[in-house]
Write a structure and sequence with these properties.
Elements lengths: L1 E2 L6 E3 L15 E4 L6 E3 L1 E10 L5 E10 L2 E3 L3 E6 L1 H4 L14 H12 L6 E6 L5 H15 L3 E5 L2 H4 L11 H24 L5 E5 L14 H17 L3 E3 L1 H5 L3 H4 L9 H18 L2 E3 L6
Parallel strand pairs: 1-6, 8-9, 8-10, 10-11, 11-12
Antiparallel strand pairs: 2-4, 3-5, 5-6, 7-13
Helix pairs in contact: 2-9, 3-5, 5-6
Length: 290
């Protein structure tokens, strides 16, 4: 059985019971994937066994194939600081399995199985937005991404924008630097990335209620205003992670008040993935009839 135009990662499938001939009644048939159960995208083998009153058995198998959609791009490059690398708030500890590029890879594989999706994580602890630009220019020629994801600016603010400092000259200068830096990241990516078709830029996430690494909440809001402006000026796709996190800081932000828990990194990935699906064209996968 082949089912096309599946709009999610799985779907319930009903199939007729296998046909049984001969045997001493009563005859009982069981399948390892029951009719009406949920099948994932791709091909799943269904194995059925029939047993008659004399305990004789017979077996058959068939495939259930669910076809979804093809995404028009394959290669993604994620650039930024420790939020891209996957730091949890413990000094220099990178939780790669829970980093948002890893979670994004999992979502792409689930929705577009067998399509060769690749997410390259170029996040680096401690990078400022200027350093993120350097990484973009360094790796664009070798990575050849079709999609660039940018989340950067925290390290410009950590020193100059602690809680209560958003109106200080030093903090305002740091906010300006992030706005200019994100603008440069987008512009230079377009100039230097011949394979790049889409650029997604995330706002900065809000701080936790407590923690030694907290950035002033108002400074983050002001910075996000500059990031939104840069994305609009350069026609990049904005991913408003800040809005998605508001009210859920206790669930998403780690004890240091800055970095994220696994749930927070999953939320980052979900935001990027939703924007990708809403922006990048998809075409149905069909089975060609001979």
């Amino acid at each position: 059985m082949t089912i096309s135009n599946v709009t999610g990662t799985a779907q319930a499938v009903t199939y007729p019971a296998p046909t049984v001939t001969d045997g001493a009644p009563p005859v009982t048939t069981t399948c390892d994937h029951a009719s009406g159960s949920t099948f994932p995208l791709g091909t799943t083998s269904v194995n059925c066994t029939t047993t008659d009153a004399q305990q004789r058995t017979a077996r058959c198998a068939f495939d259930v194939t669910l076809k979804g959609f093809a995404l028009s791009v394959k290669r993604f490059g994620a650039f930024g600081d420790s939020f891209t690398a996957g730091e949890t708030g413990r000094a220099s500890f990178i939780d790669t399995p829970n980093a948002y590029p890893t979670k994004l890879q999992q979502s792409l594989d689930a929705w577009y199985p067998g399509q060769g999706m690749t997410v390259i994580n170029r996040g680096n602890n401690g990078d400022t937005v200027e350093m993120t630009l350097e990484k973009i220019l360094r790796f664009l020629p070798t990575d050849s991404p079709e999609v660039v994801l940018i989340l950067s600016g925290y390290n410009n603010l950590t020193q100059w924008c602690p809680p209560g400092s958003s109106s200080t000259p030093a903090c305002r200068e740091a906010i300006d630097a992030v706005g200019v830096g994100i603008l440069d990241c987008i512009r230079k990516t377009r100039e230097r990335g011949p394979t790049v078709k889409f650029i997604f830029v995330s706002t900065l996430t809000p701080p936790g209620a407590t923690g030694s690494n907290r950035i002033d909440a108002n400074a983050i809001v002001q910075t996000n205003g500059r990031i939104k402006q840069a994305a609009s000026l350069q026609s990049a796709v904005l991913v408003d992670s800040h809005a998605a996190f508001l009210g859920r800081e206790a669930e998403y932000v780690n004890a240091d008040g800055l970095h994220l828990k696994p749930a927070g990194y999953q939320a980052l990935a979900d935001g990027f993935f939703a924007a990708i699906q809403a922006t990048i064209s998809q075409t149905p996968l069909f089975t060609l009839k001979r």
